[in-house]
């Protein structure tokens, strides 16, 4: 028969010894408390067994732990797993000749009852026949070599001749002669060492053994790792030696330290080779190595172990390591990592390290508690771990040890790729359920549908619909298509074309987004404009026009109610009132979603029987220029109006045979009082009162008019007199009053143009002439065209004149609420012409509204004879629109009269305005200032039209909006129309009043909100930065990691609107010094690196972010300064 391959056994032994060394070192390093009386459950392998000083069988483990087994033997055999139950057993003999075994749990059994009770014998254990089961060899009571296998009957060993072998003691089983076969080593009857391979008995010829107390011999052991075992022994000179198969002995000690008792091989020192364990002459357990080194075997407390000398010491053979097979690492689903393997033995200790191979970082360690076991011989083990993110992972088996500490792990390793699916959103639609016109309003229902692919582990499908007044809705799966409905909330929705964004998220935090088609939302009611009030005669057809009505989409329906029980529909209508009276006409404007607004207009209908008669006498004949006198049966009004300084004479200067003096006084730059007096052959007094901002004179024949001014004005009124040189049907009282801001509206206008207005003075005989003037001026010349209109009498309803004298005012004001254009002269300007529009007078006549444009560094528009409630549109010339910043202005005044507008483009926002980019999340394209001489209360609406270069909007034409500066903050106004053609984007928006405006498009606002030093491992520092986009569109930000102010790494991060991203930087800091980390301008933290003298490892001292505290250095400095101040003070004394 042949013994198992010796080299395989040797390699297995080396691995076991290495494990023992590791466990021993761990035990000593930890300084754990040790129970010196029991070692049940110890994870350190056993080294040897012996009788303690009280005669009790005891096992000692590699970490110094001892275990008392509770029996008192005569002879002790090697410790080994004899019955393959996973536990170690120790054979021993008793004083009554029984061969028994005891295991580590204290259980005993009898193997044979014919054993020798002498102490001068040994027990051997080994698998001599190679059947995988060890046998116990002993000396029978009659001196024969006995053999017994647990569970079988005892037998005796026979020699090659078939006779039983006589023996003084068995020694053990090993490949003693190096031929690859297992040899049974024993002592012959003369104590000569012999060995038997089952076919031949060989003798070493050496019997030099000590046997004073017992027999100084032990089982064969391979001490030097050459694959051949030698027999340890105590020689007759009390030294330890190793006997080879040829009988030669290698002595390990000198000076005879050993007692003549049993010896054994065992790895006590924890190195790669076993030592020889023996009983010293002082009955202490000792060890010796090949190089002659010796020492004591100490327990866990460091105390040398004392033994009973005669039985000596026997080896403890650790059980073979469990055999590990079929190790596999897989990804069964999701982010689950499964580790599975088979073990030949049941395991008490398992550990698997899960690492990230790219960073070699351990992310988890699994133990036996994380594994399930099934079956036996082999036992199948499975364990799982759920990864936190996708990536490649490795799982390495680090420990697979049985209850005796035998570890079969050999670094088995497997890798797995985790790649969880990402959902994909497509085919997103948004449709109105009840409306086919594509426009929805408050209460309308919308249906959202989307297709989601890769929907495994899908967590939610959500539609964000804040523009429709709904935060979000969850879509439900309907046969592969996800669907949901939402109802427009008009109180929260925003007018305009909007889409919903679908976000699909699975349980792995993978997200995909897609945007739906758009639907136009209209939650802005229309603004009805029924037009100005009218006074007409009964039976006159009255026109009605709702063109001034506006809506953010379109006014779909115009409904008129004329106040007399009749009605009509349409943008325009006509109606005839047959009876005199006051009627309220109502216009109801309806938009596409049914929202309404109403406006009223008062129609005053007079009796058509009123008759006006005018009688004119023949003019008086004079030798000088004639005088024309107008006499009427009804009052007659002559009115002259100019938009620039002019002088107007309402009655021709009269020169007669009697001396006449005519004086004309005009004041233009400051509010003044002007009095004009005419002297004729008969005493006649004419008083003219004039109040101007831009001097204008209106002369009215017999009419009494009240004049109100915004600046102090002196009014002189003469008593009525009768003019004798003229022939009239009745005496006439003449009072002249000048009104300037609101041109008087008259019927049947008769325009008269004065091309060269001048003032003429004719001197005759002196006549008393009262004159009142602040700064009399003889001549006034106008630089722009002037129109003079003469009409029939009318009533002036308002005559408040704002001051239009002075500079144009500052366009950089941070706060604007409509403002007043302070006018002024645009010196050097160019009149670019103007547009004329027609408005209706109170009695149905047509009055031309004139506009003129003056271009300097800004664009100034002068509007003359505007009608209350009627929009005035001005197109800025193409060559001036860039300077003005606008291409068209539409203003609706609330009163009759003239006014001016000034527009110019600004280089930047006013200094005191908040940042439009940071506050609104938009990017400004243009700033424009628009001012008016009308205050905000006198303007019912303003519409601006602006042009911008499409390239400046970077493809964001659909996100354009207009913002108005109000009290230092920006208010957003929706654009009514966005047209892009030929590289130009035209935007129109209705705003409440003039002011400072910004044309802007939605933009991304990406910034670093936080940065921190997330981790420091050795020289590696990990810095994490949080980046947030508070803007309206997706944006990309460039990040720079700086160390002590120097950029060392860069990264670009793209962030969707309203979301955050985390960016991580890794940096090595190998040198000493202070390191301050920042991402862009955001501090992440700092720390100092120093080196402790005598070490090579830097010491990192963290320096926290400033928290407002005072350092010790600060207080030290203060103390030094205080001490110095005291010394100075003392010297000064």
TrEMBL record:
PROSITE patterns: PKD. Keywords: Membrane, Transmembrane, Transmembrane helix. Residues 816-832 have a biased composition (Gly residues). This is PKD domain-containing protein. Residues 293-322, 523-550, 604-853 are annotated as: Disordered. Residues 525-612 form the PKD domain. It comes from the Archaea. The chain crosses the membrane at residues 1108-1129. Residues 604-815 have a biased composition (Low complexity).
């Amino acid at each position: 028969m042949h013994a198992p391959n010796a080299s395989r056994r040797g390699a297995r032994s080396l691995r076991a010894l290495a494990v023992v060394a590791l466990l021993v070192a761990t035990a000593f390093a930890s300084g754990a408390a040790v129970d010196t009386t029991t070692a049940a459950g110890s994870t350190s392998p056993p080294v040897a067994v012996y009788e303690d000083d009280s005669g009790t069988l005891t096992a000692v483990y590699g970490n110094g732990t001892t275990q008392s087994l509770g029996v008192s033997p005569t002879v002790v055999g090697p410790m080994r797993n004899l019955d393959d139950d996973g536990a170690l057993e120790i054979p021993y003999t008793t004083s009554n000749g029984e061969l028994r075994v005891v295991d580590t749990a204290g259980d005993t059994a009898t193997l044979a009852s014919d054993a020798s009770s002498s102490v001068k014998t040994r027990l051997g254990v080994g698998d001599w026949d190679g059947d995988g089961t060890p046998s116990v060899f002993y000396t029978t009571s009659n001196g024969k070599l006995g053999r017994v296998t647990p569970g079988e009957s005892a037998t005796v060993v026979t020699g090659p001749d078939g006779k039983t072998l006589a023996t003084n003691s068995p020694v053990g089983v090993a490949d003693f002669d190096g031929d690859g076969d297992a040899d049974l080593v024993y002592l012959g009857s003369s104590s000569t060492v012999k060995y038997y391979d089952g076919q031949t008995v060989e003798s070493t010829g050496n019997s030099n053994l000590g046997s004073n107390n017992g027999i100084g011999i032990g089982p064969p052991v391979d001490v030097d790792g050459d694959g051949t075992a030698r027999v340890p022994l105590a020689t007759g000179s009390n030294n330890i030696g190793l006997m080879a198969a040829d009988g030669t002995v290698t002595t390990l000690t000198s000076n005879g330290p050993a007692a003549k008792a049993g010896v054994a091989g065992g790895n006590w020192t924890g190195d790669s080779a076993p030592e020889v364990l023996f009983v010293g002459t002082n009955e202490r357990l000792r060890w010796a190595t090949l190089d002659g080194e010796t020492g004591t075997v100490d327990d866990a407390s460091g105390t040398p172990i004392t033994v009973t000398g005669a039985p000596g010491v026997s080896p403890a053979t650790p059980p073979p390591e469990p055999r590990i097979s079929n190790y596999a690492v897989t990804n069964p689903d999701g982010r689950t990592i499964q580790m599975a393997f088979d073990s030949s033995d049941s395991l008490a200790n398992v550990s698997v390290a899960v690492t990230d191979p790219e960073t070699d970082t351990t992310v988890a360690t699994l133990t036996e508690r994380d594994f399930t076991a099934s079956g036996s011989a082999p036992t199948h083990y499975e364990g799982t771990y759920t990864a936190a993110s996708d990536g490649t992972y490795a799982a390495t088996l680090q420990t697979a040890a049985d209850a005796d500490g035998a570890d079969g792990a050999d670094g088995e390793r497997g890798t797995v790729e985790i790649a969880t699916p990402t959902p994909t959103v497509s085919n997103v639609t948004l449709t109105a359920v009840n409306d086919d016109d594509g426009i929805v309003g408050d209460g309308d229902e919308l249906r959202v549908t989307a297709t989601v692919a890769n929907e495994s582990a899908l967590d939610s499908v959500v539609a964000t619909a804040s523009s429709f007044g709904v935060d979000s809705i969850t879509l439900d799966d309907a046969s592969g298509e996800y669907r949901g409905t939402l109802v427009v909330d008009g109180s929260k929705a925003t007018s305009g074309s909007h889409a919903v964004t679908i976000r699909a998220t699975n349980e792995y935090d993978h997200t995909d987004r897609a945007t739906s088609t758009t639907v136009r939302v209209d939650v802005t009611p229309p603004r009805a404009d029924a037009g100005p009030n009218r006074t007409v005669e009964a039976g006159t057809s009255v026109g009605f026009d709702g063109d001034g009505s506006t809506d953010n989409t379109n006014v779909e329906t115009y409904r008129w109610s004329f106040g007399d029980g009749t009605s009509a529909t349409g943008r325009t209508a006509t109606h005839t009132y047959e009876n005199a009276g006051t009627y309220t006409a109502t216009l109801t404007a309806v938009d596409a979603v049914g929202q309404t607004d109403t406006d009223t207009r008062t129609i005053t209908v007079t009796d058509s029987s009123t008759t006006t008669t005018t009688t004119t006498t023949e003019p008086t004949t004079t030798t000088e220029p004639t005088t024309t006198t107008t006499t009427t049966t009804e009052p007659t009004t002559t009115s002259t109006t100019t938009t620039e300084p002019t002088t107007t004479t309402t009655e021709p200067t009269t020169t007669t045979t009697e001396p006449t003096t005519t004086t004309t006084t005009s004041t233009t730059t400051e509010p003044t009082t002007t009095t004009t007096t005419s002297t004729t052959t008969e005493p006649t007094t004419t008083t003219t009162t004039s109040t101007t901002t831009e001097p204008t004179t209106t002369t009215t024949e017999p009419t009494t008019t009240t004049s109100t001014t915004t600046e102090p004005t002196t009014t002189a009124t003469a008593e009525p007199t009768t003019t004798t040189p003229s022939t009239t049907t009745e005496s006439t009282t003449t009072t002249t009053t000048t009104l300037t801001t609101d041109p008087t509206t008259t019927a049947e206008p008769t325009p008269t143009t004065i091309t060269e207005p001048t003032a003429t003075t004719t001197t005759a005989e002196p006549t008393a002439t009262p004159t009142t003037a602040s700064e009399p001026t003889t001549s006034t010349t106008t630089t722009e065209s002037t129109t003079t209109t003469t009409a029939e009498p009318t009533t002036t309803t308002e005559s408040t004149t704002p001051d239009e004298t002075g500079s144009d005012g500052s366009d950089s004001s941070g706060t604007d609420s409509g403002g007043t254009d302070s006018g002024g002269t645009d010196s050097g300007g160019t009149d670019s012409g103007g547009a004329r529009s027609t408005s209706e007078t109170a009695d149905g006549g047509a009055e031309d509204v004139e506009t003129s444009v003056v271009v300097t560094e800004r664009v100034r528009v002068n509007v003359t004879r505007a009608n209350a409630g009627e929009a005035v549109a001005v197109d800025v010339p193409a060559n001036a629109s860039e300077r003005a910043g606008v291409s068209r202005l539409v203003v609706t005044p609330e009163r009759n009269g003239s006014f001016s507008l000034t527009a110019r483009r600004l280089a930047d926002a006013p200094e005191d305005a908040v940042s439009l980019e940071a506050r609104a999340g938009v990017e400004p394209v243009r700033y424009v200032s628009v001012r008016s001489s009308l205050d905000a209360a006198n303007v019912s609406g303003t519409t601006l039209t602006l042009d911008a270069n499409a390239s400046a909007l970077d493809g964001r034409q659909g996100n354009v909006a207009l913002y108005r500066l109000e009290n230092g903050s920006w208010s957003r106004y929706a654009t009514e129309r966005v047209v892009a053609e030929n590289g130009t984007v035209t935007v129109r928006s209705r705003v409440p009043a003039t002011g400072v405006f910004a044309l802007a498009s939605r933009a991304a606002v990406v910034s670093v909100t936080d940065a921190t030093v997330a981790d420091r491992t050795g020289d590696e520092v990990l810095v994490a930065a949080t980046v947030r986009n508070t803007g309206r569109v997706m944006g990309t930000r460039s990040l720079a990691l700086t160390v002590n102010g120097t950029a060392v790494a860069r990264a670009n991060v793209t962030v969707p609107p309203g979301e955050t991203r985390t960016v991580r930087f890794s940096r090595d800091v190998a040198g000493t010094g202070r390191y301050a980390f920042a991402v862009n301008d955001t501090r992440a933290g700092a720390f100092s690196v120093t080196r402790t003298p005598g070490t090579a490892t830097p010491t990192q001292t963290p320096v926290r972010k400033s928290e407002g505290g005072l350092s010790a250095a600060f207080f030290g400095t203060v103390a030094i300064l205080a001490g110095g101040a005291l010394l100075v003070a003392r010297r000064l004394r």
